[in-house]
Amino acid sequence: MAIAGITLLIRSVRLQTSKFTSSSDIPVEFIRRNVKLRGRLRRITENGLEIEHIPITLPIISSWRKEPCGVLLVKLAGVELTETGKVWLQNELKPSQLLWFQLLGKENSTLFCYLLVNKGRYFSVSLNEEILRRGLGKTVLVKGLNYDSKIYWKIHRNLLKAELTALKKGEGIWKEESEKKSYLEKFKDSWREIWKNDSYFKKTGSDFNLKKNYDKFRSTYEAWKDHYLILKFKELMSRIYFRRKG
Fold first, then answer.
1. pLDDT of residue 159
2. What's the N-to-C CA distance of the chain in angstroms?
3. What is the distance between the alpha carbons of residues 98 and 213, in angstroms, rounded to a whole number?
4. How many CB atoms lie within 10 A of CB 188?
5. What is the pLDDT of residues 128-178, one digit of tens each?
6. 99, 50 in Cβ contact below 8 A?
């Protein structure tokens, strides 16, 4: 038992202090557990962000070990960037900027992550949410993230709230009335498979807490939908009133 414990400890230390230079280096359990890693931005390309992983350093090990070279290709999970959003990212992120990226999914050599940037000493900002709050992108389903997990609903609920904030304020792409009108139907269609008669929860028998997270997510959508329709009704009545007055 003691030998097995020591072996596990050594393996854990080796993984935590290893520098990952490609997505294939990252253990499956890291992605499954949605581990946060620290890195340094190298460049932003059409395919995503190239980030150099910065492992945990231990003086005894790092003094003699030579670190390999290489970068990880990272995409913003749950976000479909617009061209304006890509420009904003280029301006917002400084060369060699330090950031944290939380592993949510993987497809081939691409990692889908939640990106966090420090703003001050005790405050960090999610780039995924900030882009949506500014209307510089649209929400999409996070690839590789299990339905049957609490983080799935937490992530998507946060992204939805950020996007709906931009919609309400008419930020970025939501300045166009045509985009606003088509939004609710597109959103509903994208979740149809999950929401249809709540069949997903009947099939999987998910636990109470997961069902509660799902209900919160759905109620958020319904509340914002109703709020948006009320705003449109008030706008219509206001136009009718001023036309009569004129």
1. 93
2. 87
3. 32
4. 12
5. 999 999 999 999 888 888 777 788 888 988 998 999 899 888 899 988 776
6. no
